[in-house]
Specification:
The complex is a heterodimer. By secondary structure, chain A is an all-beta fold. Helices cover about 0% and strands about 50% of the residues of chain A. Chain A is built from no helices and 11 strands. In chain A, the strands form 2 sheets. In chain A, strands 2, 4, 5, 6, 9, 10 and 11 form a 7-stranded mixed β-sheet that branches. Chain A is globular and about 35 Å long. In chain B, strands 2, 5, 6, 10, 11 and 12 form a 6-stranded mixed β-sheet that branches. In chain B, strand 10 and strand 11 (about 105) form a beta hairpin. The chains are: A mainly beta, B mainly beta. At the A-B interface, strand 5 of A face strand 6, strand 10 and strand 11 of B.
């Protein structure tokens, strides 16, 4: 089966600019997650979708981050405006159902804010 | 909310040495436990998982982990490491008894195996 697709692979922007990341989960996976992985740290959950509804966005900095999952398939994560501390790898993962069962991760988007 | 601690940030071993990576979690309820591995330049992959039953879990590539409920631990072990085991290892947990089911990860342990 095809994996979780993410694009772009790399992005360099200046602070205060905006940026968007795209994720296409595995076909049929109802649950989609966005994680932020800062260098030297483990992935931190930003948002969890079940189909096109938000299950958990408690750790999403909503003043600058937004995410949507229209039609319950693809998802985009946006940062506007970016700060230096947003430099990280943004990982998308999907699973058939909520929970730790059958998580599949994408390769991530490495964001550098200068 | 649950949390995960991995106290070994960087481990260097010679080939054939035995490996044990520590993982402790903090949560009062029932949990599922996982170990993920990230090889250089690759995405996170599942090594093994524990949901219930036998607390000694065997995973891929000769790895195993033991769940000790009284110690809130889920340490990863391998009797003899290979150079190809060089990677970053993440312990993760999710709470089974709440509606929030996303994984919470530890900070990771970078394993370097020298030939």
């Amino acid at each position: 089966e095809a994996g979780v697709a993410q694009s772009p692979r790399y992005k360099i922007i200046e602070k205060r600019q905006s940026v968007a990341f795209w994720c296409n989960p595995i076909s049929g996976h109802a649950t989609l997650y966005w994680y932020q992985q800062i260098l030297g740290q483990g992935p931190k959950l930003l948002i969890q979708f079940q189909n096109n509804g938000v299950v958990d966005d408690s750790q999403l900095p909503k003043d600058r981050f937004s995410a949507e999952r229209l039609k319950g398939v693809d998802s985009t994560l946006k940062i506007q405006p970016a700060k230096l501390e947003d430099s990280a790898v943004y990982l998308c993962a999907s699973s058939l159902e909520p929970g730790g069962y059958g998580y599949t991760f994408g390769s991530g988007t490495r964001l550098t804010v200068v | 909310a649950q949390s995960v601690s991995q106290h070994n940030h960087h481990v260097i071993l010679s080939e054939a040495a035995s490996l044990e990576l520590g993982c402790n979690y903090s949560y009062g309820g029932t949990v599922n436990l996982f170990w993920y591995v990230q090889y250089p330049g690759q995405h996170l992959q599942l090594l093994l998982k524990y949901f219930s039953g036998d607390p000694l879990v065997k995973g891929i590539k000769g790895f195993e982990a033991e769940f000790i409920k009284s110690k809130f631990s889920f340490n990863l072990r391998k009797p003899s490491v290979q150079w190809s085991d060089t990677a970053e290892y993440f312990c993760a947990v999710n709470a089974r008894d709440t509606g929030r089911r996303a994984l919470t990860f530890g900070s990771g342990t970078r394993l370097q195996v020298q030939p």
